[in-house]
Design goal:
The complex is a heterodimer. Chain A is α/β, with parallel strands linked by helices. Chain A has nine helices and 18 strands. In chain A, strands 7-11-6-1-4-5-12 form a seven-stranded parallel sheet, with helices on both faces. Chain B is of the alpha/beta class. Classes of the chains: A alpha/beta, B alpha/beta. Strand 10 (about 140-145) of chain A pairs antiparallel with strand 12 (about 230-235) of chain B, so a sheet runs across the interface.
Chain lengths: ~325, ~260
């Protein structure tokens, strides 16, 4: 029997979609072993949003409400998770592999002397234990991990590890408050300032994505990429460098701290294909890469390789499309 | 104000552009199939530490676990200007990340006063994630992860610019603190880590790097291991049929667009 706890990451009144995938994974773990799925939401004004978790497959939902937790902070979250697990032990804890889950999981695991594996592609029951696996070595090897009997296993699950479950509105329940007894001394860290884009683009469901990289050189050249995307009916994606340059808001970012996408067509314009970007788009069905550097990693993995100056190639594509 | 900074550095498998299979017939990682390199995010952490020292004075100590295989990361740190390097002698094959962190935490305590600990965050698909967080937890200090820039240090606190989904946040924590540093550096990025200096190379080539054993640290690493590798399996290779398209051939570009857009 494997009771699983999911940390439900809630922001702006909505449960993060990778957390919903975690609930789906926890549900299949529990169904395979006859265990239960509990969810824990930590934050300020999270209880209302947490109600929907019953519809996604949770058997019990708990919330640590604290007005001081407007934003994620490592120490109070860690304390809350630890306090919760001391009262309600769960052998498996699943968190989303976001900048929240990946920050919290090892901190909590160290406190709990738990096993911890981050960025997993799967977690499943095998024999009498739980196994988790992730891709390593340039996505060539799956490595499976296990925790010794009696040790809690803390896992962060990658975006795409499970399908987000469909909500069943008929399943309802009460969110139970949990008092984690957080003290003022737990709040020594402070979020001074936050700059987060509002989501204006849906990259996840896009069929065609035209993505811009630093190879474009300047914002004027980037304008041509925008034009190309418009012509193709594509959404615009970007690397972190492009977002940092201010050419596109951060909700267009694809990769490690951006979106994970699986479009039919991914057109990489002036993107070298560093692993931080590659992990966000490697499952695209068809990859077209335009890069002047024939050693750029993205060219080795593209279905169509165009070795040339992206700022010369894009006008040609626009001409062909005219 | 001068700061004493510790930088945790690692020699890791170089998994870029791997050719062929990684596993042998028995499902084990092939010895010699992979080269190693200085973990790139640790290099960024080292650069961040050296910049704080350049501006404020103080010391930078590099620390690593295990004997060097191909790249002596500690000596590389000396070549870039750290004041001292410390090696913890242990067999990485017998350690998991928690046990490694246990050794590092004790070794750091032995170095005396420190204000800041820096390390690389995690590899996107790495074998060595979580290390920094474990060390912070074991030392009982605050951490900031995914730090792209250190915005301010002084007055008993540090402010890190943390890269999060769809944006950034600036987080302030009291010192001592541990920051894990990320950043996908682009080649012409002014933040690119400095390279080794010839003068320092001459000076540090033969310097003895002090080594600490688990016994010196009073740590039994085996007792700290919590995560076991249950096995490896090869991921079925995704065969990609690559076509080169001549950027000067408009007919070829058109035919490519036609193919792509009709879903071939």
């Amino acid at each position: 029997m494997s009771d699983t706890l999911v940390l439900a990451q809630i922001a702006d009144g909505a449960v993060h979609d990778v957390s919903l995938q975690c609930v789906a994974k926890a549900r299949s773990l529990a169904d395979a072993s006859g265990g239960k799925v509990s969810c824990l939401a930590v934050g300020s004004r999270v209880s209302e949003a947490a109600k929907c978790l019953f519809g996604y497959g949770a058997d019990a939902v708990y919330a640590v409400e604290d007005a001081r937790l407007e934003h994620y902070l490592t120490t109070p979250y860690k304390k809350a998770l630890k306090a919760f697990l001391e009262v309600h032990p769960h052998p498996v804890v699943v968190l989303p592999a976001t900048t929240v889950g990946n920050d919290l999981a090892p901190m909590a695991a160290a406190e709990l002397r738990a096993a911890c594996v981050m960025g997993c592609d799967d977690v499943r029951t095998e024999g009498d234990g739980t196994r988790t696996k992730r891709m390593e070595f340039d996505r060539k090897v799956f490595t499976s991990f296990s925790a010794p009997a009696g040790t809690t296993l803390v896992v962060t699950l990658k975006d795409g590890a499970a399908e987000a479950p469909a909500a069943d509105a008929s399943k309802q329940g009460d969110v139970q408050a949990f008092d984690a007894q957080l003290a003022d001394t737990d709040f020594v860290a402070k979020v001074l300032h936050r700059d987060v884009a509002t989501k204006s683009v849906n990259l996840k469901d896009a069929k065609i994505i035209v993505a811009a990289g630093a190879g474009l050189g300047n914002e004027e050249n980037f304008g041509k990429v925008r034009e190309l995307a418009g012509k193709l009916g594509a959404e615009l994606g970007a690397t972190r460098a492009v977002v940092d340059a201010g050419w596109l808001p951060a909700d267009h970012q694809i990769g490690q701290t951006g979106a994970t996408v699986r479009p039919d067509v991914y057109m990489a314009c002036g993107i070298s294909g560093a692993v931080q970007h590659w992990v966000g788009m490697s499952e695209s069905k068809t990859i077209v890469a335009i890069n002047i550097d024939k050693a750029a990693p993205i060219l080795k993995r593209a279905h169509y390789r165009i070795v040339g100056d992206v700022n010369a190639v894009i006008p040609k594509l626009l001409k062909v499309l005219a | 104000m001068a700061f004493n900074i510790m930088v945790i550095v690692r020699e890791v498998w170089d998994t870029r552009d791997l050719a062929g299979t990684v596993l042998d017939e028995g499902g084990q990682v092939k010895a010699g199939a992979l080269a190693t390199r200085f973990e790139t995010e640790d290099l960024n952490a080292l650069e961040a530490a050296l910049r704080i020292k350049d501006e404020n004075g103080g010391t930078v100590t590099a620390i690593s676990v295990g004997a060097p295989r191909e790249v002596d990361v500690l000596r590389e740190c000396l070549y870039r200007g750290v004041d001292q390097a410390v090696r913890v002698e242990a067999n990485p094959g017998e350690l998991d990340t928690q046990a490694t962190a246990g050794l590092l935490a004790e070794a750091i305590k032995k170095q005396g006063h420190y204000d800041l600990i820096l390390s690389g965050v995690t590899l996107a698909e790495g074998e060595n994630a979580l290390l920094g967080s474990y060390v912070a937890a074991l030392l009982g200090i605050e951490q900031i992860s995914y730090v792209d820039a250190i915005e301010e240090i002084g007055d008993g606190s540090v402010v890190g610019k943390r890269g999060i989904e769809m944006g950034y946040e600036s987080v302030q924590v009291p010192l001592p603190a541990l920051l894990t540093v990320g950043v996908a550096l682009v080649e012409d990025d002014p933040r690119t880590p400095r390279s080794a200096k010839a003068m320092l190379k001459l000076k540090a080539k033969k310097v003895d790097i002090p080594a600490l054993t688990p016994g010196d640290l009073g740590v039994d690493p085996a007792s700290l291991v919590t995560t076991a590798i249950a096995g490896h399996e090869s991921v079925p290779e995704r065969l990609i049929e690559s076509k080169d398209v001549d950027p000067d051939d408009e007919a070829a570009l058109k035919s490519m667009l036609d193919d792509v857009l009709k879903g071939e």
